[in-house]
Hints:
Oligomer: single chain
Largest sheet: 3 strands, antiparallel
Order of helices and strands: HHEHEEEEEEH
Distance between the termini: 55 Å
Number of strands: 7
Radius of gyration: 28 Å
Amino acid sequence: MAGGAAKVMADITQGAGMGDWLKLLGKGFGMAMNNRKEMFYNGPGWREFDYSFAFWPRNPDETATVQKIITMFKYHMHPWKDDVWGGRVFRYPSEFEIHYLHRTGVNTHLNKISRCALTSCNVKYTPGAGNFKTFDADNAPVTYKVDLHFKELEYMTKQSIKEGF
Length: 165
């Protein structure tokens, strides 16, 4: 019964262009309703990592190397279309292992990263100002900016955090 009365009151105030009657009533009394919102834990989320790289190749050999690096990332982030089932099945994209290194090996002062999938590889070919300069001979861009977005394939738990992840 009370729910029906509240609905009728809400319909009347909104129909008259006055808005939500509870908010209107609260404003008159200088109070607001406690909406008693709660957060429910739905499980762990995936950790995500972003890396940006800028390249300024100085000659055609360095340009070829940069383009090979970009092609390698783009290739490994996409699935393989398996023709066995008429192209209806994809094989998973490659997985990446990311390690932070220093002179003698893995840097243990930084957190470890579990196996990852590359979910985005964005390439920009223009410098910050937007002017597109090219090499004279082969029209290759002189600036490359590569933004990579990785997502871990394992959930982190208290146990994995104790292990350094």
